[in-house]
Amino acid sequence: MEQLVGRNDAAGELRELDRRHCLHPFHDFDTFRDTGALIVDNGSGCKIVDANGQSYIDAIGGLWCTNIGLGRTEMADAIAEQVKKLAYTSTFTDMSNEPAALLSAKLAELAPGDLNRVHFATGGSTAVDSAFRLVHFYQQCAGRPEKIHVISRRQSYHGSTFATMSIGYKKADRSQGFRYIEDTIHHISEPDIYRAPDGMNETEFCDFLVQEFEQKIDEIGPDKVGAFFAEPVMGAGGVLVPPAGYLKRMRNVCSNHDILYVSDEVVTAFGRLGHWFASEDVFGIVPDIICTAKGLSSGYLPIGAAIYSDRMHEVISEGSGHYYASGFTYAGHPVCCAAALKNIEIMEREGILEHARDVGSYFGERLKDLMGLPLVGDIRGMGLMRCVENVMNRTTKEWFPEEVAIGRRISDAAEKEGVLVRPIGRLNVMSPPLVITREEIDFVVGQLGLAIEKVHAELAKEGWVAA
């Protein structure tokens, strides 16, 4: 966020305390040193207000997660009631609680196919991390102990634990000083249609991606590959919508080689694409494991889950002496599960999925109005998951140098216009709450367009010419 110069800076003391003591997730030391953090004070629906009283439409949706909107009294009441009834109990080994049992049954009802088993986690990273461990455990129990290798895509994001950051491969996130699992985790090309190599059309690009996957399996050895991890639509890697038929074909390849298909729906589930889960309803596949978090509680409390198939459960539970030594102190936390149950109830009662499908399509149509702007190379996405890719030359798709910080400059300009969009390198990503209205979408698109035009004018004065 840009420095709050010239404002009634009531947040100055808080920002200084934060600057001195907080190491933020994905902390950019150079930027943070100069600007500090935007201190958010309160929020309602799609709007947040900072500690200085400045109001914004949060087109980021927290972090892909405030699906039912902020400030729901009904959510606060459900959380408070559960705290008074049972604030905590362990779910280790042979203990559970009412909200955890009810939520696991509800997730089994909503998930596709025979994905009727739920392993609770504390968020998206720990849900995917749990899936990673579950893959190894399953393959071992199935008598295939060599199948410990997994394949993912470049530009994917699957979390920030040691394992999940290794499964993901966003180049910008591979910060110097960190280490990654590199011997058993492999990566293939991301399904970026806008930048398909050698001028391939969508069908040719899909063929290329599937063939590359098959070649990677052959290179590692089919008897050594245990799972394929994939976001239905890649989120932080650039809101990459795959070519038609791509996910179905990748799923078929997995089935042919006893490779588990792990669908990372931490972002896409619970209405982001207008459905409870996108895997089957949007892309026509039933994976072996679905990972979810974020919209599961709409960000009100931290919770995640790895939902896996009955077929897998039969394998890991049959025989004697099988012991699943993995889990978390706060897995199946009764208050978090109560929040998730109330969140799902609200979504069902208010028809939020249907609303998301309607306004999601409208959002996509309105964003097309920005395609004529000089900096805009591509606009893509599905539902309420959208992205603008900014380029220096729209014909050659040439990027601005990193030092221009084009995504950040546009997000800072949009912030001044009352809209928060997320800068990711050259991109500006949007994932507003599912309850956003058409009028609010008009405001977001209009202010973002104004911000892009202002940044273009600034860059022209600095000698950067966009074509």
Task: Write up this protein.
By secondary structure, this protein is of the alpha/beta class. It folds into 2 domains: 12-16 and 31-68 and 352-461, Aspartate Aminotransferase, domain 1; 73-350, Aspartate Aminotransferase, domain 2, CATH 3.40.640. The chain is built from 15 helices and 15 strands. It has helices at 12-21, 29-35, 61-64, 73-85, 98-110, 124-141, 162-167, 202-220, 246-256, 278-281, 310-317, 334-350, 352-367, 406-416, 438-461; strands spanning 40-44, 47-50, 55-58, 117-121, 149-153, 185-188, 225-230, 260-264, 289-292, 304-308, 376-382, 385-390, 419-420, 422-424, 427-430. A 7-stranded mixed β-sheet has the order 4-10-9-8-7-5-6, with helices on both faces. A hairpin with a 2-residue loop joins strand 1 (40-44) and strand 2. The longest helix has 24 residues, at 438-461. It is globular. It starts with 11 loop residues before the first helix and ends in a 6-residue tail after the last helix. The relative contact order is 0.14.
Number of H- or I-type helical stretches: 15
On the 0 to 100 scale, the average pLDDT is 95
Q: Strand order, biggest sheet?
A: 4-10-9-8-7-5-6
**How would you spell out the order of helices and strands?**
HHEEEHHHEHEHEHEHEHEEHHHEEHEEEH
Features:
Aspartate Aminotransferase, domain 1, Aspartate Aminotransferase, domain 2, four-stranded mixed beta sheet, 15 helices, globular
Brief synopsis:
This protein is α/β, with parallel strands linked by helices and 467 residues long. 39% of the residues lie in helices and 15% in strands. β14 (422-424) and β15 (427-430) form a beta hairpin.
